[in-house]
Structure formats: structure tokens, C-alpha cells
Amino acid sequence: MTSIFFGPAPQSGPVTFLHRTAPAINMSQETTGRGVVYEDLHPVNHPINDPIEQRQSQTLTTQTATSTQAAQNLTEEATASHALAQADHDEKGVAQLSHNAEVKDLGWNEPPSKIPAPLVGGMDNEELWVLVRRFNKQMYHVKEYPYPVPGNLDLNIADEDEFSPDKLRATIERLYMTVGLGMMGFIKQVGRLRSWRERNRTAYFAAAYFVAWLLDMLVPLFTVTLVVLIVYPPSRDVMFPPAPLALVDAKTGGVQKPKAGVLGSTDTATGAPEKHKGEAAEAEASNFVNSIASVALASASGKHPQTEPPPGQAGVADSIPDPTAIAMSASTAKTSAEGKAAAPTHDKTKVPMETAMWSKMRPIMHGLADVADTWERFANALSPTPPFPRELYRLRLAAVVVPLVAVSLLTSAYMFTKGVTFGIGFGFFGDPVIQPGLRWLNRTFPHWQKLLEIRNTLLKGVPTNAQLTITVLRIGEANKAPLPPPPHSKDPPPDQPVEITDEHLRATGADWPLNATQEELDEAMAHDPTTAHETAGADIDHSKDSKHGKKGHKLISFFKSTVKGTVETTLGADRLKAKAGSEPSKQRLGAVPKTKDYNIDGPVDFACRFHGKKGHTIISTKTAIPYVAFTLDKKVADQGSIGREEELHPVWTVPVADIKELKKVGGLGWKAKLVVGWALDREVADGMEIVSKTGEVFTITALPLRDELFNRLIAMGGQKWEAW
């Protein structure tokens, strides 16, 4: 049994707010309402016995509290991230300035042009929104981590990270945006050097290489160059001048027409246009995964020209949709149709192969995430982003490389070759020595592998992009100025070339960028609608196209309208079932909002539902102990909750410090969400679970600004989080 007291304040003293897992806390009279108690508040995914209205009339009780050892707020500086959020930085943004308001609204419902800049010192608003947008897609589920964190930074990925296909997709997209685009940039820089188009720069590189080769100084040359690139960032643009990825031909090193037909962005492989920085790269990553899935599906279904009838003789095939386009797995049907195998129920390899593949998915996903994390850490070490130190990590990397210069000067090629070949032989034949040594290490130093991980040694304290993002979010919360969410726009970006400056395209010395004239550059960057459809041949065209035929399109349209009617009927039935007391139906109410005008919420009040009842989740930071609560007060939509705390009578209240777990949940099942999105062309409002330290689960649903509420809650308290 749990009691949460929210009682009236005596005129002569403070009000007592008691919770089972926290010490007695004093709250000011301004933030309390009339006496309300909520006993036996069941987790919302369980059937409930009492309606919400009845809980608001129960008698006041109190219970003894037990203390916890976890940090209760940001000021306790549980990690370096918490400390940086509290630090007084020399370069400040609007969110870091002092103010007298309880919560300062920096433009949550304003267009980007009206949001003050910069929000955080040393960071452009567009760069900040890129981080937050990708953070929203990466973070699904976090739990409080009560132990010391690696590198003194929380929000590391748990070793037991839960696997889901959607999370695997997000990981692959993240890998594309980090490692994929980074490797493309490296390959195109090599192509520019080898092409001799920028003659002076290539000549300098060639002269330095061959002189060092003659003097047997290649390794010292490479290590010294690496040290210079690490320690002195301006040298990077001199040695490797920037150029838009999509504008450079990797084979010739010269100018090419971007695959999108226009140079609308500078950091993408296709050059597709974007309305906000980073959106084109994110769309590219999504389509990269879609294309892999499409090719795999086409391969599984046996799509091949030999199975297609001659042109003009399609007959019934013209009325049948392409199975790859409607995303059906046709591998079994293909096998049965060809008569080359036994019935699927007699296939003895199916179950073990499927089991083996799905069992390996979690370690594969975790490995991909580790690769992306390491790449991001190196990037943030070489080019630190405030509020993290600008020089510390670069100097540490250089300190590791500098000794290699001395070693390379004292080591001959013969000694190097002998050492490498000995290492190969020892690794191959030295198992009788290696295995006992490993057993001794495991026995003497448990978890020694963790201590030697690069994030705990060379890159200790260097954040991933997710850790950088939560630090920036904590800066806003520490100053009671929550950062506005990334702007959203349904309008397509214009097919206009992006403005190119020296920051995006330049050459070294007297060379022309890419050895191209201004007219050639303008022609390559200008919009050409036919370029995006060009392929490498007719066979690629045939395999890529999804042909439905005229009758096939009509069939799909009819099927879509039928599904739309079914979905609307089901949603209507849910409302009736919810009134009859069906808990699953209550959880689905409002999941498909009729309107998209929900941007009036935040940063304090968030429209949502609890057990199907319309209300608002509110966050209060006016007291010493910030808390999150749910209220049914209808006036919140128009008047807000600030200054009206006594009138709200919350259904439940949880101190932010007592939250031990946050999890994003779907408003509908994933299959239903796909069907609703396809048939109704409407967004689905998802939900979130808040788990307290007593184990109570509060599930709020139909929450359009779920990501924004999630971000505020994980950034407000002193918890050390772990990503699941």
C-alpha cells in the first residue's frame, strides 16, 4: 500500500510531502493543494478497481520513508556530466543566463527564427537540434545505474541491452551517419589526392613521401603528421581542404553531379536538400536501411527477369501487386511453387537457423553500437564541443602518439618486421601459454577487459553524442530553462542549391577547388530532376522498380480504403470498450489524434491520458524537490499550471529524484501502427512508462510530445542513467 500526501499548509510552517522511498521533504505552501491521498495505486498495465475520481476523495495518510544513496538532484554532481551542467562557463548561451522565472520558456512553440541564439554557448542552434533529434531516435529505455560509471559519464549502453528490430534499425542508421559518411569523406579525399587535379597539394604530399622513403623516415613522417593533425586543428583544412561529399567523384577526384540532382546539403552522399541541418543525412540513413531491406526481400521472394512474362503478355500478372512493394515474405511460396523442397513443416533447418540468427542479433547490435560510440568519441576528442574541455582530450591523444615518433626513429625496418612476425607466430601457436595467462587474469583481476576498454583508458571522459546531448539538456534544466525541441516541418525542402562558402569548399594554395571553374561548379550544383533516377544499367532498373500494373494500383487503392474503414471502425469500438471498463482499450484511446495542433504544449505541461482519461502531465521545479504529476484539470490547456498548483489536485505525484526507470512505449502495437500510418496517413501518439523506486508503474498514453517529456525527466535529476 502506498500513500502520497499533498496536504494544505499551516499558516505558520511548511507542508510535509512524504513518499515511501524518500526522506520527509518540506514543500512550500504555494505548490500544494487540498488534502489528497491515492492509496493502492496499481500499475496502469494491471486492471484497476477504483476509478480515478474516487481516488481524489480518499483520506490523508502518511508513511515512514527510507533514504536512498542515489544523488537526488543535479547539484550533487554524480558524474562529470552533472558537474559540467552546473559549472559557470565563460561562453554562455541564452539558456545559461540567470532569470527569475520558475521555468523560462525559450520558444518551445515558436518558429526557429524567433528562438534566441545561441541557446548554449559555443554551439549553433542547428547543431544542438541535430544532437537532440538523433538522441530522440536512439534513446528508448533508461534505468538508474547506482554504481560508478565508466569514464565518469553516464548513459552508457547496458551489456544486457534489449534487442528489438526497431532498435537494430536505429543502430544501423546511426552507424551510417557516423562511420559510413566518415569513410565516404576519407575515400573522396584520397581520390582528390590521387587525381593530381589540385596539383600543388598533391605535389607537396608526393615530395614529402618520396623524400621520407629515400631517408627511411616514412613512419616518423606519418606519426609527426598525425600529431600535427591532432594538436593543431587548422592544419586539417590545409592538408585536406573541405568539399561537399556529393560534389566529389571518388574515381576522378573532380566535380560530379550530386545523385539527388541538386546540391542541397554538404554533408550527405546524395546532396539532397534539407530544411534543417542534418535532416538530409537522417533521411539518407533511413533510406539506406530501407534499400537493404528491399533488396533482401526481393532476393527472398525470388524476383528475377526469367520469371517475368514478355512485354504485352502480362495477363493476370498485370493485376497482381509486386510482393516486394507490399512487404510480404515470399521465400516459402517461391520454394513451394518451384517444387524443389519439402513442405515447410518438414524443413529441419528452418527452426535452428532462425534461432541461431535471432540469438546473434543482440550481440551484433551491441557490437555495431560500440563501433558507432567509439567513432563518436574520437570525433568529440579531436573536435570537442562545449561544455567539454577543448584541449584536454587532444593533448592526451597526442601524448600517446608522440612516443611512437621516438620509437620509429630508433627501430629499423628489420626489427619491426621481426617483431610483427614473432607476434603473429606467438598468437597462432602460443595457446598453451595464453590460456593459463588469461585464466590467471580472470581470477586475479575480474573484469580486467572492462578496465582496458578504450572508453576507460585513452578516451576516458570523452562523450558519445548521446552523452554530449544529455549534458546539454542538463545545462538547460540546471538553469530552469529547458531547451526548445527541434523544429518540425511537413513541407518539403526547396530544390535549390545550398549556399557554398569557404567553410564547405576550398583548395590549398593557388589551386582551384577540385580544379573546376565557377561555371562548372554552378552547373553541377544546379537542380536537374532526371539525375536522381539514373542507374548503372537496365538490369538495375528492372530489379529496382516495383511494378504494380494499372489494375494492381487499383487493387492497392481499394485495399487501402477497405483497411481505412476497418481501422476507423476499430478505433470507434475502442471508445465503447473503454467506457465499458476495458483497460487495453483505455490505453489506446487518443493514440491516433484527429488534429496535429499539439505544439502548444511544453515545457511544463504535456497533454496526455492516464487510464484513458484526458489530462496533463506537469513538471514543477518551484520547490526544492522537483516532481512530475498527472492532473485532470481541464484549465491547464488554456491557463497552464504555473501559479495554479493549489488548484490542480494531481492524480499521482512522483518526485523526479524517485524515478528509477523511463521507457518509451507504443500507443499501438508495431503492426497496428504501420497499418494506421499507411491507411489513415496520420501520426500515432505514443506513450511512456515512469517507474518509481517503489516499483510503481505510471503509464501515460496519447502523448504527442513524448520525446520532449522524456528528455526533461532524464535531465532534471541527479540519477546516473544506463541505456537499455
Task: Please describe what this structure looks like.
By secondary structure, this protein is an alpha+beta fold. It has a domain at about 15-65 and about 585-724: PH-domain like (Roll), CATH 2.30.29.30. The protein has 23 helices and twelve strands. It has helices at about 50-55, 80-85, 125-140, 165-195, 200-215, 220-230, 235-240, 280-300, 330-340, 350-380, 390-410, 415-430, 430-445, 450, 465-480, 520-525, 540-545, 550-580, 585-590, 635-640, 645-650, 670-680, 705-715, and strands at about 15-20, 20-25, 140-145, 155, 605-610, 615-620, 625-630, 650-655, 660-665, 685-690, 695-700, 720-724. It has a six-stranded mixed sheet, covered by helices on one side. A four-stranded antiparallel sheet has the order 5-6-7-8, covered by helices on one side. A two-stranded antiparallel ribbon has the order 1-2. Helix 4 (about 165-195) crosses helix 8 (about 280-300), helix 6 (about 220-230) runs antiparallel to helix 11 and helix 15 packs across helix 23 (about 705-715). The radius of gyration is 30 Å and the shape is globular. Mean pLDDT is about 80; it is low at about 1-70 and about 305-340.
